[in-house]
């Protein structure tokens, strides 16, 4: 059996990864030695203070940047170049201004196959509907609000049905109701088409609602300082947000995040 088959195509291994950014003589350590595995088909959230290296970690997994030391493996294979099986929803939407919403969403399919098939176009329209953009498929990015651009970028990240989905604060620019709706849509999609999701958020309750596990990162240089198992039943419905178990997990998340910040402050004063 190949290493990929053993690990599962969507399994992620972060093995002793360190990331230091060098600019002129200045070195910024974004990640201190980090080792963690994400299981195939798992929904994992990363939470942590601003600048702790969450986006950096996603880029290393996607193969968009390389670790200073250590190794990232996906499906058992070392990541050395941008991964074809992964899709990233970036923190900023990065749509192409000269393409319509529909054509922006179809871009990853064009890059992969040359021309989108009829089924691809149908799926793109399904995603547009799911994101509430059905009246804007032929609009250009400058005609959209910030949250609408973000939703178009999320649809673009889903259109190839990736085995590994890396989402960087995808719902950060949205109002609470839209965000909760899209949380539910995302879970439905994930349940229908199993995939490994690594989801960055600043919202503890969003992380609890979505995840199997929450990784709490300490302030820069980041590392995983705590792991919270979210053993709430699935499928998760909106009502779960009012349950005692849900709110207890949110409370635990808050305590853990506070501890992660304090740990850094102590280190900074040492
Ligand atoms: N390309 C880069 N060149 C130099 N420094 C970088 C680069 N990318 C990130 N950094 C630095 O690495 C650190 C971690 O950045 P990163 O974007 O990963 O944080 P983050 O946890 O995603 O923060 P936020 O919650 O604000 O999005 C920061 O100090 C940032 O300045
Ligand atoms: Mg970030």
Structure described in brief:
The protein is of the alpha/beta class. The chain has eight helices and ten strands.
- The largest beta-sheet arranges its strands as 6-7-8-3-9-10
> What is the end-to-end distance?
49 Å
CATH homologous superfamily grouping of the domain at 3-81 and 196-269: P-loop containing nucleotide triphosphate hydrolases
Order of helices and strands: HEEEHEEEHHHEHEHEEH
Instruction: Please compute the radius of gyration using only Cα atoms.
Output: 19 Å
What's the quaternary structure here?
Answer: single chain
CATH topology of the domain at 3-81 and 196-269: Rossmann fold
Instruction: Estimate the global geometry from the Cα principal axes.
Output: globular
CATH class of the domain at 3-81 and 196-269: Alpha Beta
The share of residues in helices is: 25-40%
Overall average pLDDT: 92
Based on DSSP secondary structure assignment, what is the total number of beta strands? 10
Query: What percentage of amino acids are in beta strands?
Result: 15-25%
Structural class comes to alpha/beta
* Number of helices, counting only DSSP H or I runs of 4 residues or more: 8
CATH architecture of the domain at 3-81 and 196-269: 3-Layer(aba) Sandwich
Which hetero ligands occur in this complex? Answer: adenosine-5'-triphosphate, magnesium ion
| Largest β sheet strand count, sense and barrel closure | 6 strands, mixed
